[in-house]
Amino acid sequence: xxxxxxxxxxxxxxxxxxxxxxxxxxxxxxxxxxxxxxxxxxxxxxxxxxxxxxxxxxxxxxxxxxxxxxxxxxxxxxxxxxxxxxxxxxxxxxxxxxxxxxxxxxxxxxxxxxxxxxxxxxxxxxxxxxxxxxxxxxxxxxxxxxxxxxxxxxxxxxxxxxxxxxxxxxxxxxxxxxxxxxxxxxxxxxxxxxxxxxxxxxxxxxxxxxxxxxxxxxxxxxxxxxxxxxxxxxxxxxxxxxxxxxxxxxxxxxxxxxxxxxxxxxxxxxxxxxxxxxxxxxxxxxxxxxxxxxxxxxxxxxxxxxxxxxxxxxxxxxxxxxxxxxxxxxxxxxxxxxxxxxxxxxxxxxxxxxxxxxxxxxxxxxxxxxxxxxxxxxxxxxxxxxxxxxxxxxxxxxxxxxxxxxxxxxxxxxxxxxxxxxxxxxxxxxxxxxxxxxxxxxxxxxxxxxxxxxxxxxxxxxxxxxxxxxxxxxxxxxxxxxxxxxxxxxxxxxxx
Length: 496
Description:
The termini are far apart. Helices cover 45% and strands 15% of the residues. The chain has helices at 13-24, 40-52, 67-80, 90-94, 96-100, 116-126, 166-170, 198-207, 219-232, 249-262, 278-286, 301-306, 315-328, 345-358, 375-382, 388-395, 417-426, 432-440, 452-469, 474-495, and strands at 2-8, 28-34, 57-61, 85-88, 107-109, 138-142, 145-148, 181-183, 186-187, 215-216, 238-240, 267-271, 289-297, 331-338, 362-367. It contains 20 helices and 15 strands. It is an alpha/beta fold.
């Protein structure tokens, strides 16, 4: 069977895993990606490319940010063909009933689809009008009725899933592999932050009695994928996209030992400060990690705990963990949210003050984006920040796109936040005297820049440029010497 996946302008590991699962089941699979402005010509071009593939099934993996994009293409496809269309992905997991009622959607997959979607393709290969109710997690329409099976449980053994089909993506964006290789070693998160899709994702599976939310691939399986990739492409950097790469200290220690011996490529990862101590920080640094991403979100302790549902400890504890990472020699990339319910300008000014003392290497200043079914939707509605109509629009994806995090998000009132956003994004390279002057004189309130390029893209470029200049600086030399000494000690310990 010929299947075409459609995705928008960047790599989607979830899509590539599904492509691989389908190819392993004997199907012919292609990927169509869209780049550029979204207008009628753009959508017509993508539709033509899909039809040129002559697929038997068209698949869309939907997050909220691309839900409108997927709907526009699927609707146009239905106007020009009778191809069966399936939607899946996080947005569909949150709102399955909304998705399956779309006239242009024939099937949806709810939850992890590496087993269910190949089963569906196998049955579709034999008959278009079959009974698919025996396939877990698949819903479909027949004669105006919505039919299907209950949600399947988690895939327990992630090693059973083939490596993601990177060829499909690198064929379209050949320069990508020369910059970095994206990989994930686990699925699930033990936390339930109120702004994150894991809030509803975990809750849905808990109803089924699933207790093991966090699952991890074996060390052999992860190293095997990286060795396979290293042999095929000139990789310069590995990015681990696990929600919390450092969650299991024993696994991490054993994995990084193998990683050093068999892969030995600089890498970045995402972590949670609750998992950080001196041992973990040194282990990461000695293994080639050069940057760690952490979520801070707010320095208002009460808001962080009661509204964002984060249990990171006190501000002092957070600062202590950040300094452990920084003093070890790791670059710190922090996430910070603007405009969530209960947030205030005073809280943001406090954050500016604290960040000025820590000086993270990068601050991702993210505007509040409300996603369907997250806990913050309920909080925002109860406090009058969102109306029922606005929540409906959020569910349709009308407020979200790939720029939402960086410019305005889905919040309605943005008093002085543009100035705060500017200062936070440029803080890593601005002298504290300038930040102090702009805040104390309240000149920051006059900053009303609404350009993603000026606020985010340019700041990231300048931060990168200044980090290159650090290569010749005394602190960098000291860090390099410290790294070499630590590596030497590590080798001596392993020999003993």
